[in-house]
């Protein structure tokens, strides 16, 4: 009897032979697992994962599915023919206990996701009962074993072991299981795609390897940096950027490990860290570079910088801003489709992604997100603005990163002007063996050279009217960074009649970009020919990745690193004297502070400034690190793992870990705003051609994204009743109230205590 894995992809097409499928998946899984010592164990998983399809019941299920696709009968209920329990039984017979249990979890989860240990036991019992409804379970196991013995070499299970260190480390063991699972599900997905979607599979074959482009990319980057450092009078900023770049080139030949790159704001860490990664990958034969940034709002900007230097097709962007699971490619071109395919499993040489995408994938239990994990092995991971890692999840995050460096050949680069206390004597948790790329003496000199502002602390709280009066009297452009959107709108109202702009997530992304461009141009005119001052009232969205330079700034009391980052947008190029460029830290009399960890960080910053800062300056290199050490000590072990994730990991409870490790508790929906004519045309198109569709294709989602704002679910019903939004489909709403050119949707949205930041 012939056995099949999948139905034909088209009428008249071939059925997917089961033995060929198992062979292909086993080969690929073994290749994927080899870099971290799990090749043989991954091969066992690949060989047995679909062994249950050797049952008459499953073959009948496939025939009924094919008839239904031809319109010749009803489609059988998905999952009604069980096929995983047989594979689990074969794994149990083939492997010794510790490897057996891990492989069984992978086989049982290869469609629905990794389960907890108790869930695995229940799943096995339930699946075996379902199999018995159709076939004799033992007969199917015997049939599968016979076919597999006939067609495959006997696996030497002495190689099917986990590294000895993992048996003594629950957390490393748990992470290895995730990577093993990734090998299986990616291998399975790729071979299934070769059968069902050969055109897409062919696009994957065009993927380039990092080693094939490294030399050219390094040359391009060198040429770009040389063009920025032309001979002539050298400012302190230009000198520091050149010295940081040279240090990155020199350190790139070091063996893999954990590195820190401490660079003052404006010191050129983005391109310098890329230079280190390129040289380090070449020196150590690493497979890819993954650049992790903190916010979706700056991913386009970072990717654009890399493309400008390395070429249009050099960079794969992957973040969570668009609902990827609902994309289709019916009208995407080959390049767009190829990028989407690469985003599924990160099979690309240079990836720019967000912390949310990276860490939520690392701790996910779902096949769609886990399949990329094995491609993180033997890569350079650059964590930009590492201080933004959520403190309440810091222990599991650092534990995961430690596993990457110890067991998967990953080199980690911790980038920031405000380095957290993650290494050395100041480390409170998970002290890494960190090698600084720039030496301590040079770091201190760089921070002193680029100390371009004077901090002043207001002695009394300021009302919005008092603050507005000070801004007017200064007679120069001013940046004000506040802790909440509500506070930003209040100050905008107090500055009514002035040349004021507003920046927060109440504005769609395209609107925010236009505001930044407009403000930059106004600042240039003010600097060059005495143009009128412009005032920007912003939330924290301005504090990372925005290259802008004001003569003066205000920052509401907040976490110490946020204060320093805000100051990095003042006198950024060092064109003014330090004493002429003030950053005033103040307490808003009528302002608010987000509750929870953010409030704790604010309180710790005030305490630190009052009691521990002493004669040092806020923009000294070691001050933020010292502040973080005090913060971590204050929070303690429980405060750095507030969700109890490490205990869940110890119990191998993968679903609960995935739930608790969400960096953003996202309960928002995207709302399309008619910001400009382009947005209006897209809205008209959706209403005319996509009305009542349950979802939209990828191309349309990409066009929509720059014009959306996120509105919390608890606001949607009220806004709909008030006639301010309307549902376009299951995933998207339209803003039908007036969209304010200054405030965006501000003024129409209420705020709950969790909706105050950004």
Description:
This protein is α/β, with parallel strands linked by helices. It folds into 4 domains: 4-196, Hypothetical protein af1432 (Orthogonal Bundle), CATH 1.10.3210; 210-321 and 331-445, Rossmann fold, CATH 3.40.50; 454-619, P-loop containing nucleotide triphosphate hydrolases (Rossmann fold, 3-Layer(aba) Sandwich); 668-735, no CATH class. The protein has a 7-stranded parallel beta sheet, with helices on both faces. The chain has a 6-stranded parallel beta sheet with strand order 10-15-14-11-13-12, with helices on both faces. Strand 14, helix 23 (560-567) and strand 15 form a beta-alpha-beta unit. The termini are far apart. Residues 321-336 and 752-758 have low confidence and may be disordered.
Summarize the structure.
The chain has about 750 residues and is an alpha/beta fold. A seven-stranded parallel sheet has the order 5-6-4-7-8-3-9, with helices on both faces. A six-stranded parallel sheet has the order 10-15-14-11-13-12, sandwiched between helices.
